[in-house]
Specification:
This protein is of the alpha/beta class and 346 residues long. It has helices spanning 11-22, 48-55, 109-122, 146-158, 169-178, 193-203, 221-232, 262-266, 277-281, 287-296, 317-320, 324-341; strands at 2-4, 27-32, 37-42, 60-63, 85-86, 89-90, 96-101, 126-129, 162-165, 182-185, 209-213, 239-242, 274-275, 301-305. The protein folds into 2 domains: 2-63, 2-Layer Sandwich (Alpha-Beta Plaits); 85-341, TIM Barrel (Alpha-Beta Barrel). Helix 3 runs parallel beside helix 4 (146-158), helix 5 (169-178) runs parallel beside helix 6 (193-203) and helix 10 (287-296) packs parallel to helix 12 (324-341). The longest helix is centred in the C-terminal third of the chain and has 18 residues, at 324-341.
């Protein structure tokens, strides 16, 4: 919908916008109002170049889109009934709980094996574990390929599917070759479109699930959904959106908690939403409350960092990982909130 700055465009300007939209296979339909005439774009109005050319005209106030910019992730798309299942849970029918260490310590694999068993007993359906880690400080521990073997051994011992982050093509190949069923795209790479394309191409034709974090800056909801579209566009729609807090941070928290965007996203996309409260607030003491708030807002699950002995962990675990006891209680309360929101599902 084209809204001009004046009440009605002169013929030469109507001709100009008509030529632009017709070059993209659309046409103009004027809608005459009492105060202003607006110009509807009839056809597929999602072409960014067409919109940019129209918005660049000095006499156009703005363009209001009627169609969604997402062909696959939109709530009205043909994929709107698509279901994602992992760890025995179909998202949307029961809460999905993902838990485990921020970082796997290859020098102390025993901690991860113990944590894996503990989070399973606490009620987790998926085991998370950081094999490779993006670090602000180049001298901080960046992860180790050896940790991938530890992750998969823990999966075999517990029977839990696993989730780990990949940051480049080599890590992507290693994770897929090892049989990792859930790949995580972290906040730093959430807008790395080259990586998103690589992941989309690599998981096409597979049952692999991609857990896509929201980018670190306070990006728009459409930007978040569009990132998922990059992956799904290759043929695998198994994408879960994961709000995890944004920048700038709120005083006292690691980031600016953003679990409140869940209902807004659900108005636009069918994609399941699993919130990461650990990175959102950044302190273990605040994680349970943030988790319950996320489920109250309508989240389909949680991704929580946990450790059998957080003080002996590496990475973020000492400050934000929950103990198994607190994790179990958080899951218990989370299921109660889920029942309140979905009384017929449990």
């Amino acid at each position: 919908m084209i809204l001009p700055k004046v009440h009605r465009l002169p013929p030469e300007q109507v001709q100009e916008i008509t030529e632009i939209v017709e070059s993209f296979g659309c046409r103009i339909q004027p809608i005459v109002g009492a105060v202003r005439t607006i110009y509807a774009i009839v056809g597929d109005e999602r072409d960014e170049l067409m919109i940019n050319r129209l918005e660049g005209l000095s006499y156009i106030e703005r363009i209001d889109r009627i169609q969604s910019p997402f062909k696959l992730m939109d709530i009205r798309s043909d994929l709107s009934t698509h279901q994602i299942t992992i760890g025995g849970v179909t998202l949307g029918k029961a809460p999905l709980f993902i838990a485990g260490q921020c970082t796997i310590d290859p020098k102390n694999p025993g901690f991860f094996y113990e944590t894996a068993q503990a989070v399973k007993e606490a009620g987790a359906h998926v085991l998370r574990g950081g094999v490779w880690k993006p670090r602000t400080n180049p001298y901080a521990f960046q992860g180790d390929d050896k940790s991938l073997d530890i992750l998969m051994e823990a999966s075999r011992c517990t029977g839990l599917p696993v989730d780990t982050e990949v940051m480049d093509e080599d890590q992507l190949k290693l994770a897929l070759d090892a049989g990792v069923p859930m790949l995580q795209v972290g906040a730093r790479n959430a807008l790395n479109y080259s990586l998103l394309r690589q992941i989309g191409a690599a998981v096409a034709g597979r049952k692999t699930i991609v857990l896509l974090k929201r980018s670190m800056h306070m990006g728009t909801l459409n930007e978040f959904i569009s990132a998922a579209e990059y992956i799904a566009n290759f043929g695998n729609p198994n994408v879960i959106l994961c709000p995890r807090g944004t920048a700038p941070a709120l005083d006292g928290y690691r980031n600016f908690p953003d679990e409140s965007i869940v209902p807004l996203l659900k108005e636009r996309t069918w994609a399941p939403l699993v919130v990461d409260p650990s990175h959102s607030v950044g302190k273990a003491a605040y994680v349970p409350a943030c988790s319950l708030a996320a489920l109250a807002y309508g989240a389909d699950g949680l991704c929580i960092e946990a450790h059998v002995q957080p003080s002996k962990g590496i990475g973020d675990d000492p400050k934000q990982a929950l103990t198994p006891e607190v994790l179990a209680e958080t899951f218990r309360l989370g299921r109660e909130i889920w029942k309140l929101r979905h009384p017929s599902s449990l």
